[in-house]
Amino acid sequence: MSHTAHIPSHRKPRRSASKLAVRAGVAGGVLSTLAMAGTASASPAAEPVTETLEMPVLNLDLAAEVSSAVTTAADNTRAAAVNGELQAEEESARTGAAAEAKQAKEAAEKKAKDEADRKAEAERATRNAARTTLQNASASGEMGSGTVTAPATGSAAAIVNFVRAQVGKAYISGATGPSAYDCSGLVQAAYRKAGISLPRVSQDQSAEGTSVSLSALQPGDILYWGSRGSAYHVAIYVGGGKFVGAQNPSTGIVERNLSYDRPTGAVRVL
């Protein structure tokens, strides 16, 4: 056996720093053991022993790994920054869209409210105009018939008192009293109370006497609706802008203002 011992070299790629440290420690231990063995076996007369040791070569490419790690970290940082910017832009876009939608909704609601207010104002104006027209017509009828301010006397008073006493009774077509009347039946009965005979139907009654203006009415005048000689309804003017008539089955005999159902004309028989 040769006095020179050779330790084979095992070279493997470095995988990690911890493995390199272990290998270095093992190599150091081997060298220490060999040194101690050589010292113990050597004698004073023995020849010097020469030992050749081949240390393992540690190839550490740390610079490349560090550079790669730094590059990866930088790339990750840039990616995170870009992702953050994209999220911020998306959030800003959502916020802007929500604000625009809210503004559009408020504008639509305001427009609808303005339109509703305009329509309501127009309806109020129309109602006011109609109310004014009705009031003017009522006032005109009362003023027109107000030429007679004194109470009815004589035959006119008898006629007026009679028809007013029938208010509230029923309207029945063809009836002539005493519990129910139609329009011409009431007029005929009232004039009979004053001793005057009239035709039975409204068409003939509207052709009696002389025509008078609605602005010059007197109590006891016969009012008619339609044309004279072919009227479809008649009643008695009782003064103060009012008349009494058997209107229809739903109302019966009532006293109303001329504005309630303004007549076409009038005749005076008294």
Descriptive overview:
The structure is a single chain. With 270 residues, the chain is an alpha+beta fold. It has a domain at 148-268: endopeptidase fold (from Nostoc punctiforme). 50% of the residues lie in helices and 13% in strands. It has 5 helices and 8 strands; from the N terminus they run αααββααββββββ. It has helices at residues 17-41, 62-144, 154-165, 183-193, 202-205, and strands at 170-171, 180-181, 210-212, 222-225, 233-239, 242-248, 252-257, 265-268. The strands form 2 sheets. It has a 6-stranded antiparallel beta sheet. A hairpin with a 2-residue loop joins β5 and β6. α3 packs across α4. The protein starts with 16 loop residues before the first helix and ends with a strand. The model is unreliable at 40-44 and 130-149 (pLDDT under 50).
